[in-house]
Amino acid sequence: MDFALSEEQRMLQDSIAGYLEANCPLDCVREVAAEGESRSETVWQGLTELGAHAVLIDERYGGVGLGLLDAALVAEALGAATAPVPFAASSVMAPVALATAGSAAQQEEWLPRIAAGEVVFGVGVTEQIGRRETEGVRIADGKLHGKAMFVLDGVGADRLLVAAAGGSLHMVAAQDAEVVKLKTVDRTRTVAEVAFAATPAEPLPGSADSQEPLRKIIDVGRIVLAADTLGAAQTMLDKAVAYAKERRQFNRVIGSFQAVKHMCAEMAAALEPCRSLVWYAAHAYDAIPEEGRLMACHAKAHLADVGKFVARKSTEVHGGMGITDLLGLHYWFKRIGFNRQLLGAPELVREEAAQVQEWA
Fold first, then answer.
1. How open is the CA angle 126-128-130, to the nearest 5 degrees?
2. Which of 35, 54, 160, 210 has a CA positioned 20 to 30 A from the CA of residue 272?
3. Are domains 121-207 and 212-356 of this chain identical in fold?
């Protein structure tokens, strides 16, 4: 039995990666980061034409109707290019929420627009993952109150999908809430602090009596972030190897030194098994649902640690050049670091994995 990617899946990832290589160079990333924009409009439109936003949306809503593994392959390519576009929340978590908990009318209204790249969703669920000093979000008389922190893709979003106390999901128009951009180390994506003051909200009916939709969007978000880290870490490894073959010291390329060889080998040995882990986690979500949440936790936590290791070692291989803006290595370094914290740091996620297995 062949456990590799299908030809169609390889073609999907190659087409996304090829487009980003041609249209999302480092100068594009620098420009978006310097201007403080929420996305590159050119890259966003190109990905829309390639169907990246429609991967998880059913064909009857204008989507492609693929699985989470396909979305993870797209995320891996985006991480490899540090593409400055919203994806995890708007193109993965929001469609999954609407598909699992939305009414038929909500699905018909919003899923085609997401697939066509006409609307961006921000997703705020971090209050349901760990304790916060803020009061969180509560629903009363059909209106939202409180504050949501670290709303993914929240800056520049048209609609916000927020989890209230108890795990119920609600949609609000972004202009009806107070959205404040939060400064983070990663300038290629955005998160926001969103305050609600009796803000009119539209509930997703399937989440009223069950936390399953909330758990599903957290799981898919973690898997996609792990895939993004995988792509970014692979790029950092590739750059370290290429630099080691070019940089000369004492009339020799530094790649000929045993210490540098070991650093590159350690990065490759740590990163290669992660690819299978991410792919299996994405596959399990669709095909083996009883393993879905556990594998999402494992993938998120392990990639966070391995990504951090590769980011540090790659920077060390580059020496002093590794921290300069000339090479831009810091964009991948910071993206990996930001992914590590989003939707739960490794320690918290491993605790959840232990709870899933009834070890804690």
1. 70
2. 54
3. no
Domain spans in the chain, listed from the N-terminal domain onward: 7-115, 121-207, 212-356
Is residue 360 predicted with pLDDT exceeding 90?
no
The CA-based angle 55-39-315, given to 5 degrees, is 95
- How far is residue 81's CA from residue 110's CA, in Å, rounded to a whole number? 28
What architecture is the 212-356 domain classified under in CATH? Up-down Bundle (1.20)
Q: Dig out the tokens for 50 from the structure.
A: 């390639």
Q: What mean pLDDT comes out for the span 194-216?
A: 92
Phi, psi of 49 (to 5 degrees): -65, -30
What whole-number distance in Å separates Cα of residue 89 and Cα of residue 48?
15
* Contact indicator for 58, 99 with CB cutoff of 8 Å: yes
Counting Cβ atoms within 10 Å, is residue 33 exposed (0-12), middle (13-18) or buried (19+)?
A: middle
pLDDT at 1 over 60: no
pTM equals 0.95
Q: Is 305 exposed, middle or buried (0-12, 13-18, 19+ CB in 10 A)?
A: middle
Contacts of 31 (CB under 8 A, 6+ apart): 40
Could you name the CATH architecture of 121-207?
Answer: Beta Barrel (2.40)
Fold of 7-115: Butyryl-Coa Dehydrogenase, subunit A; domain 1 (1.10.540)
